[in-house]
Specification:
The complex is a heterotrimer of chains A (160), B (463) and C (289).
Chain A lengths: L1 E7 L2 E7 L5 H8 L18 E4 L2 E4 L12 E3 L12 H8 L9 H14 L5 H8 L10 H14 L7
Parallel strand pairs in A: 1-5
Antiparallel strand pairs in A: 1-2, 3-4, 3-5
Helix pairs in contact in A: 2-5
Chain B lengths: L9 H15 L35 H6 L14 E7 L5 E7 L1 H5 L3 E6 L22 E2 L5 E7 L2 H10 L1 E6 L6 H4 L13 E9 L2 H7 L2 E8 L3 E2 L7 E6 L5 E5 L4 H12 L6 E5 L15 H11 L3 E4 L2 H7 L2 E2 L2 E9 L5 E11 L7 H11 L8 E9 L14 H19 L3 H8 L18 H11 L8
Parallel strand pairs in B: 1-13, 11-12, 16-17
Antiparallel strand pairs in B: 1-5, 2-4, 2-6, 3-5, 7-17, 8-15, 9-14, 10-11, 10-13, 15-16
Helix pairs in contact in B: 10-11
Chain C lengths: L4 E4 L3 H11 L3 E4 L5 H6 L7 E4 L9 E4 L2 E5 L4 H6 L1 H6 L1 H8 L4 H6 L2 H7 L7 H6 L3 E6 L2 E6 H4 E3 L2 E2 L6 E8 L7 E7 L7 E12 L3 E10 L6 E2 L1 H7 L6 H14 L10 H23 L3
Parallel strand pairs in C: 1-3, 2-3
Antiparallel strand pairs in C: 4-5, 5-10, 6-7, 6-10, 8-9, 11-12, 12-13, 13-14
The chains are: A alpha+beta (160), B alpha+beta (463), C alpha+beta (289).
The complex binds flavin-adenine dinucleotide and FE2/S2 (inorganic) cluster (2 copies).
The site of one FE2/S2 (inorganic) cluster (FES) has 10 residues of chain A, from loops.
């Protein structure tokens, strides 16, 4: 068994899991954080995207043992009890998601982008989302929502 | 004393009762509502206030929060995980299935083979697909056994330890080759399992009227839907002999009937909870693993879950039909279509699934949105030893569209006519009749073409 | 995934001793973007996985007496973000940028890309055109070699089970050498190369090709140098015609195959075009454009 202690969404959590457990399985099966989805399990779809030490990564491609002592942010860590994160709000307002399965991964990728680049161009948004496959939408409304959320986060626009 | 009792007039009261009853009862057959003589036509290009408005979705917030519960997000206490052993050979007789080593593995709760399934066949139109292949394998993605274990990992290893002995048979992969019926996928049945023919006008006369005749063969490839959420279900058999299935299935009522059939159980003992679907696109329109999971749950007394891997999505779920399309079209020198002959060969893969529907739609739409007085469209759907094909957005419409529009471009090029003009000349108008004689209303194809051409600058480009 | 044991190394030395101790059925884990996929598809069934992501001595990008040193654990994102590399080696930035997507680039390392050694690897061509060398460390010490020697075949390098790749070094003489990398995939993101190519050159006297190096990927069992094309160009005047001729000669240097991504004949066309374009772009860079 591999023992891991890590910070998830600001809280310290521990678990003891078989060594072959992926970070995604750890989050979903041990901590019941089912927001991160398993779409392919091999790094192609981005449905499992989480932020590790500030950078978006595929949770299906990391082993639990590799995140011991590290900081993980999942989709469950974005909203507070009082309010949605501006990206979540924009995704709702722009109806950016249809079936929603890709949504948590896309939103985490968008957060990863805006944390590093508060004023991205459309091309930069596309590049940041290129590791997230969506089969329902055409990405257009996601891009619009990310632009809108960026404006709110920069303080150029009031949150709705 | 009895004389005091006023006996009601039997016949009277019965009539009364009957009348009241009739008043309350809905007619069992709805009276045909006659079409209004004057049809209400919406003006072309007229937009209702809803068009162009932004609407939010009621499920949007939960999606964004990651709180929508898809099936893989649901767990039950004591739940087992199932995996299926895939054949890996596209056509073979199954000589034997040895599950003993798998059953002996610690953590394995139950193993199921095809012979244990009460009625081992299903399908939305023909019941030609086994839940678990028992006597014969029809395509490489066929499951030959299912395992329920305490973890997915153990279930997977157990599948590897199941030994299946096959007698390989010669497969047929090419649908045109399959038409010869030299190798039959489902003997004794012909490989041609569905056909359709639409005739309109006089084909020979139409071709005689043409100045030029164009012939071409077009083909499209197999396409997987790739819903981001893989197929998944959970089954729980309860001690009352009822089974509850949580499933990503899109058509639950139809699925329920199919499950009842395979389990040889009354339909009222089967409950399906349709969970939120993470993308369907036609690929989740029929049952897959549900009956097997139900039986595994009965064997173990525990809930059993199975989620397809991405690989299984490609090899074991339905796909879009590859088409081979022969088009022969007669046109006058000024670009009027006088006749068209279409022959479609659909590669149906190993099972029928929604092929009949696809075949019908494709055939009806194969002439395109054009006024063609003389038409013959024939379509054949073939069994081959490949992953089965089924419903996918458009039911055959995109494939034929690729063919007839490709040919329209060739015709325009050869006749030296602007491709847009060629289409405008022949396109449906208000009141045009479709190949099957349906009189069409609210026909805006020309308006749409014009508007689109204007928007993307077709004329300016000098095309 | 099959069961295995997991151990973590804090340094290259510790990794080597863990590998020796648990070997030979052991495997090094860096970013995991290649190896986890293989483990899930049961292509490997190791007893022990040695995680090296905590080995600080395998990280870092620096310029020293030997040249530019890039630690094996440097991720593709770190290459894209490094100010020195951005300034001096845009070809390496381009190559890193074409790999997978943001998530894969944040995890995937340069070392992992080279060790996986698929013919279509995107880090290979630009580094080979810049005559990069690698340092390999094992129980008996370290050795240094060029990439041509390091790559043995598809998915095979000279590494023994108890050796690790320490770093990649671009020799001092090539610091700032104008170079370009191009990749042709079926889509922009998340696609492997049908063909990729890189060229590096100095402009010699009289506007001639000097020390020109051309490297190609996905056209032979490993990433290769296009020797005939290089020989042809050396000392010749820099003209579009000569670049095009080098493209044609590069096709002769390669042995492309038919596979599900592309046909050999399509790959041959791509080799000619990409070679010519990388030469042209490298030359523009040399001109300060
Ligand atoms: C979705 C996706 C898209 C991708 N797209 C591309 C692409 O476009 N182009 C491309 O080139 N690649 C691509 N890859 C492949 C992969 O991302 C890269 O090859 C990556 O650089 C591998 O690095 P890693 O650190 O993840 O390696 P790992 O998976 O950790 O290791 C790979 C191999 O190298 C060995 N290894 C790693 N580091 C060392 C070391 N220091 N010493 C000794 N052995 C070592 C491991 O044992 C293993 O055999 C893609 C992968 C995915 C999942
Ligand atoms: S599940 Fe991790 S990328 Fe698809
Ligand atoms: S909304 Fe369904 S996959 Fe993106």
């Amino acid at each position: 068994m591999t023992d891991v202690t890590l910070t998830i969404n600001g809280e310290e959590r521990s678990a003891s899991v078989p060594p072959e457990t992926s970070l995604l399985r750890l989050l979903r099966d041990e901590f019941f954080l089912t927001g991160s989805k398993l779409g392919c399990d091999v790094g192609d779809c981005g449905a499992c995207t989480v932020i590790v030490d500030g950078l978006p990564v595929n949770a299906c491609l990391m082993l639990a043992g590799q995140v011991d002592g590290r900081d993980v942010v999942t989709i469950e860590g974005l909203a507070t009890l009082e309010d949605l994160h501006p990206i979540q709000k924009a995704f709702e307002e722009f109806a950016s998601l249809q079936c929603g399965f890709c949504g948590p991964g896309v939103i985490i990728s968008a957060k990863g982008l805006l944390d590093r680049n508060p004023d991205p161009t459309k091309e930069e948004i596309k590049d940041a989302l290129s590791g997230n496959l969506c089969r329902c939408t055409g990405y257009t409304k996601m891009i619009e929502a990310v632009q809108d959320a960026a404006r709110i986060l920069r303080g150029e626009k009031e949150a709705a | 004393m009895t004389d005091d009792v006023k006996v009601a007039d039997k016949t009277d009261s019965l009539t009364d009762l009957k009348e009241t009853d009739e008043d309350l009862r809905l007619p069992s057959v709805v009276e045909p509502a006659h079409f209004p003589v004057e049809t209400i036509d919406t003006e072309a290009r007229h937009q209702t206030p809803a068009v162009g408005q932004r609407a939010t979705r009621p499920d949007g917030r939960l999606h964004g929060l990651g709180q929508t519960k898809y099936i893989d997000d649901i767990t039950f206490p004591n739940m087992l995980f199932a995996k299926m052993k895939r054949a890996g050979i596209s056509s073979a007789l199954i000589k034997s299935v040895d599950t003993s080593e798998a059953e002996a593995m610690p953590g394995v709760a139950a193993v199921l083979t095809g012979r244990e399934i009460p009625v081992n066949s299903y399908g939305p139109s023909y019941q030609d697909q086994p839940v678990l292949a028992d006597e014969r394998v029809f395509h490489a993605g066929d499951p030959v056994a299912a395992v329920a274990a305490v973890t997915e990992q153990i279930a997977e290893e157990a599948c590897e330890r199941i030994k299946v002995e096959y007698e390989p048979l010669e497969p047929v992969y090419d649908p045109v080759e399959a038409m010869k019926d030299e190798i039959r996928v489902h003997p004794p049945h012909s490989n041609i399992y569905a056909t359709k023919r639409i005739k309109k006008g006089d084909l020979e006369k139409g071709f005689a009227e043409a100045d030029r005749i164009f012939e071409g063969v077009y083909s499209t490839q197999m396409i997987e839907h790739v819903p981001l959420e893989p197929h998944a279900s959970i089954a729980q058999w309860d001690p009352n002999g009822r089974v509850t299935l949580w499933s990503s299935l899109g058509r639950i009522t139809l699925g329920r009937a199919d499950i009842a059939r395979t389990l040889d159980m009354p339909i009222n003992k089967i409950r399906i909870v349709g969970t939120i679907v993470g993308g369907n696109f036609g690929g989740k329109n029929e049952i897959t693993t549900e009956p097997a999971l139900a039986l595994l749950s009965r064997k173990t007394g525990r809930p059993v879950k199975m989620v397809y891997t991405r690989e299984e999505e490609f090899i074991a779920s339905t796909t879009r039909h590859p088409f081979i399309m022969e088009y022969k079209t007669g046109v006058t020198n000024d670009g009027m279509i006088t006749a068209r002959k279409v022959r479609l060969v659909l590669d149906g893969g190993a099972y029928c699934s929604w092929s009949e529907t696809t075949l019908g739609k494709a055939c009806i739409l194969s002439a395109g949105p054009y006024n063609i007085e003389n038409l013959l469209a024939e379509a054949y759907c073939m069994y081959t030893n490949k992953t089965m094909t089924g419903a996918m957005r458009g039911f055959g419409a995109p494939q034929v569209c690729f063919a007839y529009e490709s040919q329209m471009d060739e015709i325009a090029h050869k006749l030296g006519i602007d491709p847009l003009e060629l289409r405008m000349k022949n396109a449906f108008h208000e009141g045009s009749a479709s190949p099957t004689g349906q009189v069409l209303q609210s026909v805006v194809v020309k308006d749409s073409l014009e508007k689109a051409a204007e928007r993307f600058g077709w004329k300016e480009d000098g095309q | 995934m099959r069961a295995f044991d997991f151990v973590s190394a804090e340094s290259a030395d510790q990794a080597i001793s863990l590998l020796s101790e648990h070997g030979p059925n052991v495997i090094v884990l860096a970013g995991g973007t290649d190896i986890l996929v293989d483990l899930k598809h049961a292509k490997h069934d190791p007893d022990v996985v040695v995680d090296i992501t905590r080995a600080e001595d395998l990280k870092g990008i620096e310029v020293n007496d030997g040249g530019l040193r890039i630690g094996a654990l440097v991720t593709h994102t770190q290459i894209m973000d490094d100010p020195y590399i951005r300034e001096n080696f845009p070809a390496l930035v381009h190559a890193a940028h074409t790999i997978g997507a943001v998530q894969t680039r944040n995890l995937g390392t340069l070392g992992g890309n080279l060790v996986t050694c698929v013919p279509s690897m995107d880090s290979g061509p630009a580094l080979m055109a810049l005559e990069a060398e690698v340092t390999v460390a094992g129980p008996d010490g370290t050795r240094r070699m060029g990439l041509e020697e390091f790559f043995v075949g598809p998915r095979k390098t000279v590494l023994e089970h108890n050796e690790v790749l320490l770093d990649v070094i671009i020799p001092r003489k090539n610091l700032g050498k104008p170079a370009d990398f191009l990749k042709f995939g079926l889509r922009k993101g998340q696609a492997l190369a049908l063909v990729n190519a890189a060229s590096a050159l100095w402009v010699g006297e009289g506007n001639t090709f000097k020390d020109v190096k051309i490297s190609l990927g996905a056209v032979a069992p490993t990433v290769i140098r296009a020797a005939a094309a290089e020989d042809f160009l050396e000392g010749r005047e820099i003209t579009p015609e000569n670049m095009a001729e080098a493209g044609r000669l590069a096709v002769e240097d390669a042995k492309p195959i038919d596979d599900f991504r592309a046909s050999a004949s399509y790959r041959r066309d791509l080799i000619a075009v990409l070679t010519k374009r990388t030469l042209d772009n490298a030359y523009r860079l040399a001109q300060g454009g």
